[in-house]
Design a protein that fits this description.
115 residues, YitH acetyltransferase (GNAT) domain-containing protein
Length: 115
């Protein structure tokens, strides 16, 4: 997992990538950030830390369908070796929590995490 900090040491993004053994793919999640530049740096650093990266078929990510920043980022990033899918599934019991979905670039197990 990689973490991005600003000049005040506040967290401005995190990115983790896990392997999916059955499909021999990689999947992001959690992957949160406030802007595309930080997303690029986080993804680059996280991918660089994966040993034998060439043995995996694709890098995948699920992100909220209305996150236009994530869509633009992944369209630029893909280069034919990535699969990025918009995904939104809200689940709640009594109220909707303000999660800041515009910061979500990758979900883990199709759920939201509190940070």
């Amino acid at each position: 997992m990689e973490v991005a900090l600003d000049e005040n040491d506040d967290v401005v993004g995190i990115c983790a990538i896990r392997t999916i053994p059955l499909s021999n793919d990689l999947s992001t999640g959690p992957f949160y950030t406030d802007n595309e530049d930080v997303a690029g740096l986080l993804l680059e650093a996280t991918v660089a830390a994966i040993p034998n990266i060439g043995k995996y078929r694709h890098l995948e990510s699920l992100y909220p369908g209305f996150n236009e920043m994530a869509r633009r980022f992944f369209e630029k990033t893909g280069d034919g070796h990535a699969k990025f899918h918009p995904f939104t599934q809200c689940a709640f019991t009594k109220k909707i929590l303000p999660l800041g979905d515009e910061r979500v670039f990758g979900l883990l197990e199709c759920s939201s995490s509190f940070i």
